[in-house]
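Q: Could you fold this chain for me?
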Amino acid sequence: MSLSIAGALALAREMLAGSESPATDAKVLLAHVLGQSQTYLFTWSDKTLSETQQEQFLQLVSQRKNGHPVAHLTGYRDFWTLRLQVNPSTLIPRPETEILVEKALELLPETAESVCDLGTGTGAVALAIASERPGLHVYGVDRIADAVTLAKTNALHNNVANAQFLESHWFSSLTGKQFDMLVTNPPYVETSSEFLKLGDVRFEPRSALTAGEDGLDDIRFIITQARDYLKPGGWLLIEHGFEQGPAICHLYKQAGYTDAETFRDLAGHDRITVARMPACD
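A: Sure. Below is the predicted structure, expressed as structure tokens.
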């Protein structure tokens, strides 16, 4: 039986009932199959799908029903003003990470010359900052070679020329460099967290998610080591779990940073904590 666009969406919502966002997922997947915008789906709701389109769409819906992330099914995720290719080698960019970009742009002085995104993954944060500050040199580093290749591809496809991506285990390839700001969305999930059994994270690399029993192993390392890679007065911005803000403020204080402050995301959860190196007298 041939389905109209409206009929296909209704069937997909039924198949995905009980999932986190059945209506949204159905629209994204059908727009992807048709190569059209979601507005098109409503404007031409009575249009009949071809046999190939219908088969492809229902296959994607079945995969989504089994838990596969929508971004992996379409091959991309929109973030900030960018369309980013994604793959299973790295995390899918989340909307809540945009607050990291917002705060970075707010705190960066006009005279800033360079920023580094630690654990860049798809390049989302680095490319968003670079796209807004074309005079800035933005680095993105990741220890996964496939992630670095992906970030370079995303820079090319989004016409961002002032971002450079390097393979580096945190600071290992940054010897001798200093930055006006370091930003990072590091692994911060506890290794025993039930969160790891839910949703999209089941299909994402565990190494990009977990960091010890309290989720702070990588953050401790970054806070300690970042002092050697920040200019005087330079900022370190860290995305983290909603209960980790106080612990990170304490780690900043222990390491000699100043002006530590935690900011919430749009859902009201603690999301990023920032601090800066003392400025020279």
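A (continued): The mean pLDDT is 92.
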